[in-house]
Amino acid sequence: MTQKQLDESVAHLKTKGFDTPEIGIVLGTGLGQLVNEIENPIEAHYNHIPYFPLATVEFHTGKLIYGTIGTKKVVVMQGRFHLYEGYDFSDVTYPIRVMRQLGIDKLFVSNAAGAINLNFKKGDIMLIEDHINLQGGSPLAFKNVAEFGDRFVDMMEPYDIGMRKKIEKIAERESISLQKGVYASVVGPQLETKAEYRMLKIIGADAVGMSTVPEIIVANHLRLPVVAVSVLTDECDPDNLQPVNIQEIIEIAGNTEPKMIKLFKELLKEI
C-alpha cells in the first residue's frame, strides 16, 4: 500500500460525487439492509475502484454507497473483506483508509458473530467493549507504516466510550435488548471446534467472529473514533453443539438487523 494508491482511489470516488462524508459504516454478513435508508445514493462497485480488493463471499455485494441518512453524509461498505478469502491485512483494511481520506470522522462497524457467553442468545445484539485478536497478525505490521501514522498504537480503549454510552442510552430508550462484551476475531472460514469454544470462553471472549478487529486497529491508527456491534446469530455451547447452518445464520442476521439499523440511525442523529 502506498499513499499514491490511496490518492488514486479517493480521486476516483470524488469524481463520482463522494463529497466529504462524515460517517463511515461497515456492514457485516447478512446485514446489508441499512443501505435502503440512504437518500440520493451514489454507488461505486469495488471492482471499479482503483486498488480496491474484490468481495468474494456470495452474500457480500461489494460496493461503496455514498449518500445521506437523516442530516449526515455517510459512506457505507456493503460487503467487507476477510482474511479467509485469501486477502492480507492491508487488503482487508484498505477501505477504512480510503474512507478516512475521503473525510469521515467517525466509523460504525457491524458483524455477525457467535455467542460464547451462554447468557447471550441468538438474535441478541452485543455492543463490543473490547476485543481479542486471534488472527495471527496485524494490519500495522508493514515496513512503511510510519508514513500513515504511529507505528505503536495505544489500544487501551479501542472502542469510543462516548459513542458506546450513546448506543446504550438509545437501546434503553427504544426498548432494544443490548448485551455488552468482548469480541474475539479468528481467521476462519471453518467454524470452531468444541475445544476451541471452551478456550475462547476461558480467555474472556463473549462472542467470536472472523472480521472487525483489523478494521478497528486501523481506525485507531488513523485516530478515527469507532463503535461496533455484533448481531449474535448462533449459540456456541460446546456441551450442546449443533451442526452449523449458514442459511439460518443469515436468516437470524436479517431478522435482527432492524434493531441494529435503529441503533445506528439514532446514533447518527446524536453525534
UniProtKB/TrEMBL annotation:
Pfam families recorded: PNP_UDP_1
Protein name: Purine nucleoside phosphorylase
Superkingdom, taxonomy of origin: Bacteria
The protein's annotated pathway: Purine metabolism; purine nucleoside salvage
Chain ranges of the Nucleoside phosphorylase domain: 23-269
Transmembrane segments: none
UniProt entry tagged with the keyword Glycosyltransferase: yes
EC nos: 2.4.2.1
GO molecular function: purine-nucleoside phosphorylase activity
Enzyme class name: transferase
SUPFAM superfamilies, per the entry: Purine and uridine phosphorylases
Family: Belongs to the PNP/MTAP phosphorylase family.
InterPro entries assigned to the protein according to its UniProt record, in alphabetical order: Nucleoside_phosphorylase_d, Nucleoside_phosphorylase_sf, Pur_Nuc_Pase_Ino/Guo-sp, Purine_phosphorylase
PANTHER family in alphabetical order: METHYLTHIOADENOSINE/PURINE NUCLEOSIDE PHOSPHORYLASE, PURINE NUCLEOSIDE PHOSPHORYLASE-RELATED
